[in-house]
Amino acid sequence: MRFRHLLPLMSALFALYIIWGSTYFVIRIGVQSWPPLMMAGVRFLSAGVLLLAFLLLRGHKLPPLRPLLNAALIGVLLLAVGNGFVTVAEHQDVPSGIAAVVVATVPLFTLCFSRLFGIKTRKLEWLGIAIGMVGIILLNSGGNLSGNPWGALLILIGSMSWAFGSVYGSRIELPTGMMAGAIEMVTAGIVLLAASLLAGEKLTAMPDLSGFLAVGYLAIFGSVIAINAYMFLIRNVSPAVATSYAYVNPVVAVLLGTGLGGESLSSVEWMALGIIIMAVVLVTLGKYLLPAKPVVTPCQAEKP
Fold it and tell me: Where does this protein reside within or beyond the cell (predicted)?
């Protein structure tokens, strides 16, 4: 009986740890035969249409206009800008493992934006941000990103957009369940394909089999399945467990990139990877590992 309860949890964690961690490597494969914006647009539009059709066939209704527009905005911030910029950066020869390491800073930026919305933060969490910034500086000081500043900037902007969208999305009304994700993906797909058209992207040749398989994997596994897994986790486990993918994904991406993709990291970049993961652990798990001391308020004696 206990195994039957643990199996969905372990499956969901596997989806986030391995599938989302592998998407950086798969994006790297895909952009070898697809223009980046076009590939990201096809990925999210196909995934969003598939999920939306499934929900409508199951009897779900489209949400009212206000939450629908809110979901569309979040889709632009998270997927079109957040993920789209990572795809463009990998097309500019930023190694997939390095891209994942930079994206791991999202919880750090999320904490900063949370402060802007009046959400209290602890000194321990700001220490995590400071350590994370040291890791980012190290990552940009030499090796793969030093010769590609535009790629590094694109990923940082994408990470900040994802972080802001995550915080802002928690403060506004969104459609319930997976309908929000479906609308976000459809919107992101349309925006990315429009950006591809404006950028003059064209298919000079039909993508090869690996290119089509990459888009299929990203749409089905990286989008539909992984997002469902994430929604299951945030409803059934603590936020610390649900967001633990942030420091597992870079490790998976680096191992895949170096083991299968022929990528290499310098000693400085390996050090930066460790520092950034440590910072993210401090920010996401710090309140559980080192809980704040309870504030004891003395009781006032009642007047006779």
Answer: Cell membrane
Which sequence spans correspond to the domains of the chain?
2-286
The residue type of 154 is L
217 pLDDT higher than 90: yes
The pLDDT value recorded for residue 1 is 46
Q: How many CB atoms lie within 10 A of CB 61?
A: 9
The answer to pTM > 0.85 is no
Cα 158 to Cα 79, 100, 209, 224, distances in angstroms: 9, 12, 28, 21
Structure tokens at 71: 């979901």
HSE, CB side, 13 Å, CA atoms: give it for residue 6.
3
**Which of 90, 108, 107 lies closest to 99 in space, CA to CA?**
90
Neighbours of 285 (CB within 10 A): 17
Among 111, 120, 123, residue whose Cα is nearest residue 163:
111
Residue type, 225: I
| Contacts with 222 (C-beta within 8 Å, 6 or more apart), sequence order | 19, 20, 22, 23, 26, 43
Exposed, middle or buried by CB within 10 Å (0-12, 13-18, 19+), for 203?
exposed
Contact yes or no for 90/221 (Cβ under 8 A): no
Q: Is the CB of residue 16 less than 8 Å from the CB of residue 229?
A: yes
Quote the CA–CA distance of 186 and 224 in Å, as a whole number: 12
Query: Would you call 22 helix, strand, or coil by DSSP?
Result: helix
pLDDT tens sequence across 83-101:
999 999 988 888 787 788 7
State how far the Cα of 24 lies from the Cα of 76, in Å rounded to an integer.
Answer: 19
- Cβ atoms of 35 and 196 within 8 Å: the answer is yes
